[in-house]
TrEMBL record:
<keyword id="KW-0119">Carbohydrate metabolism</keyword>
<dbReference type="GO" id="GO:0045493">
    <property type="term" value="P:xylan catabolic process"/>
</dbReference>
<feature type="active site" description="Nucleophile">
    <location>
        <position position="293"/>
    </location>
</feature>
<keyword id="KW-0732">Signal</keyword>
<dbReference type="InterPro" id="IPR017853">
    <property type="entry name" value="GH"/>
</dbReference>
<feature type="signal peptide">
    <location>
        <begin position="1"/>
        <end position="23"/>
    </location>
</feature>
<keyword id="KW-0326">Glycosidase</keyword>
<dbReference type="InterPro" id="IPR001000">
    <property type="entry name" value="GH10_dom"/>
</dbReference>
<comment type="similarity">
    <text>Belongs to the glycosyl hydrolase 10 (cellulase F) family.</text>
</comment>
<keyword id="KW-0378">Hydrolase</keyword>
<keyword id="KW-0624">Polysaccharide degradation</keyword>
<dbReference type="Pfam" id="PF00331">
    <property type="entry name" value="Glyco_hydro_10"/>
</dbReference>
<feature type="region of interest" description="Disordered">
    <location>
        <begin position="29"/>
        <end position="54"/>
    </location>
</feature>
<keyword id="KW-0858">Xylan degradation</keyword>
<dbReference type="InterPro" id="IPR031158">
    <property type="entry name" value="GH10_AS"/>
</dbReference>
<protein>
    <recommendedName>
        <fullName>Beta-xylanase</fullName>
        <ecNumber>3.2.1.8</ecNumber>
    </recommendedName>
</protein>
<dbReference type="GO" id="GO:0031176">
    <property type="term" value="F:endo-1,4-beta-xylanase activity"/>
</dbReference>
Amino acid sequence: MGRPRPRRLLRASFAIFSLAAIAAGGPAALGQPGGKPADPKAAPAAPAASPSAGETLRHAARGRFLVGAAVSSWGLNDPKVAGLVASQFDSLTAENEFKPASLSRQPGQYRFEAADRFVEFARAHDMKLVGHNLCWHSQAPAWLFRGQDNKPLPRDQALKNLKDHIDAVAGHFKGKVIGWDVVNEAISDAKDEYLRKTPALRAIGDDYIAKAFEFAHAADPGAELYYNDYSNENPVKREKTVRLVRELKAKGVRIDAVGMQCHFVLSDADAIDKLDQSIAAYAAEGVKVAITELDVDVLPRRGRVADIGALEKGGDNPYKEGLPPAVAEAQARFYARLFEVVLKRPGVVNRVTFWGVHDGASWLNGFPVRGRTNHPLLWDRQLKPKPAFGAVLDVLARP
Ligand code: GLA
């Protein structure tokens, strides 16, 4: 996968972000005026899904790991979605609202209103809140690491900006989040390159990652700190991730868990075995594992990675009218195997977060090919539970 130049990548990322948000519900998702504010205290509607005997994911997994969902503001605005989130999940991630670009457009200027609704919703429904994210090359304002001329800032200035940003954000949410994805997607997909050449790396150097973790710990010493990435079930990226964990630990930097995004593709027959091996490898380094952005893409695609700058043209859209039962069953088996792996090492995987709640709002309707009808999650577009939902509950019910 070629690496787009930063400006292109940023534009592409914003385009996807905006498209997904607009497709999903309009301005509220972008934190723009005109969207109805979420009412965090809205009583959860009766769950639209009717799991067997009313069983829920959060109850079925209790005491073993948190089950989370990533939701956007517009999702919280929809009483049916909000009800499903509150009843089924005990951990919440904001799909966009905590990202650097959502919080700050100008140096020193922050808008926390949209993100604060998540704090309130989590509190009202006894959910843990996860901060996503403090430092990423995408959906981040240029001022952090680049000058007016778009060139990297001098190291000292960039370090100060990183610290100021983390102080402002982690400071604001201090005591309100259980942990932070401190750095997102810093490892390169290229076989022979360790770290991605991000704006932060170009301005600061390789140690921007350690610095971000140090600043986050100083700003909120009670928060867990995670390194989050996609495709880190794959051996090459796994090795680089192990290297990063070792380097951070050797410097005495706190890191609690590796976040494995797990944007999986149903046709990837080896994915679950690779996940299993990677969980073991990360556990051996003395860190926990959080599955942070789980979904299972059922559509054909060329690339396997979840780099949101990597759009594809064309591509079939075979399930416009609905997911054929055989595919829904295959997806259910995929999810079941994944949860079997999660349960294999008690205490290692401490959270499984789905990237969305229902198929209609998934980012995968627009990625990697725009405008398709994907079916990656546990609830369908009518908020009816799919076979995958029952399959996950069945695994969690086993003695
Ligand atoms: C990455 C990011 C998420 C989200 C997804 C796609 O995985 O970590 O925040 O943007 O891409 O929506």
